[in-house]
Amino acid sequence: MSGIILRTENLTKSFGGLVAVSNVNLKVAQGTVHAIIGPNGAGKTTLFNLITGVLKPTSGKVYFEDRDITGKPPHYISSLGLTRSFQIYSIFPNLTVLENIRLAVQAKWKNVRWDFIHPTSHYKDVVWEAMRIASITGLYGKTNILASSLTPGDKRKLEIAIALAGNPKLIALDEPTAGVSLEEVAPIVRLIKKLRDEMKKTVVVIEHKIDVVLEVADKVSVMNQGSILAEGSPKEIVENREVQKIYLGE
Ligand SMILES: Nc1ncnc2c1ncn2[C@@H]1O[C@H](COP(=O)(O)OP(=O)(O)OP(=O)(O)O)[C@@H](O)[C@H]1O
């Protein structure tokens, strides 16, 4: 049994009178893919925002590797090894795939100074690392393509590549297959498995496509109206009557 890398304790976020996340106690085991599912407005994105420091909770705690990260800013949380892929917004459309990944690597390598005295060797290391990440994410043959020209599936891979730049321990993916054509879903599923199986990352993923969840997740937490309604293996979740009710009605 793996250790717990991320956990929340009675995590709550209210927006005025609306409780978007209510007393959530989430436990994510190291080296697993943990899916968060639930109907629209269930609180999944708000939960992600609380975990990654984009929002401060109204009450409750977030622990990453037993360190209290509650209310800490995103750059600090990211520096500890918990990174989120920001949909599309993290991509510069008018730069190539390689330039996008290179900028992400450069931003993470704090010791790299971009001066005019030592540019060449540092530049080579950063480019080398960017090529390595492009290769891992299946973008090796597309490094010179402008990000704006990528297919939706490859854009998602580029988001994951950018998130990988700092060599995080845990990657939070918000709907990595959203807007992706059917043929492009399988390569993304393979990439998520590769992150876990080969790169030993922990992945927390918000995902609407239940077949993707069944294929990739070790554990599933189902949210409804701000709370966790059920947790278990994908098989347990699809067989759960309560879960069936919120998805299919009575
Ligand atoms: N900044 C905000 N201000 C006010 N209400 C908000 C804010 N962000 C989210 N909400 C509300 O909180 C609730 C949970 O929203 P959230 O986006 O977390 O749900 P979700 O499960 O991610 O939904 P979806 O699957 O549609 O993305 C919703 O009722 C939403 O309208």
Automatic annotation (TrEMBL):
Biological-process GO terms, alphabetical: amino acid transport
InterPro entries: AAA+_ATPase, ABC_AA/LPS_Transport, ABC_transporter-like_ATP-bd, BCA_ABC_TP_C, P-loop_NTPase
PROSITE patterns in the record: ABC_TRANSPORTER_2 (PS50893)
Residues covered by the ABC transporter domain: 6-250
GO molecular function per UniProt: ATP binding; ATP hydrolysis activity
Xref: Pfam families: ABC_tran (PF00005), BCA_ABC_TP_C (PF12399)
GO cellular component, one term: plasma membrane
Claim: Metal-binding is one of the keywords in the record: no
Keyword line: Amino-acid transport, ATP-binding, Nucleotide-binding, Transport
Role noted for this protein: Probable component of a branched-chain amino-acid transport system.
Name this polypeptide is given: Probable branched-chain amino acid transport ATP-binding protein LivG
Organism of derivation: Thermofilum adornatum
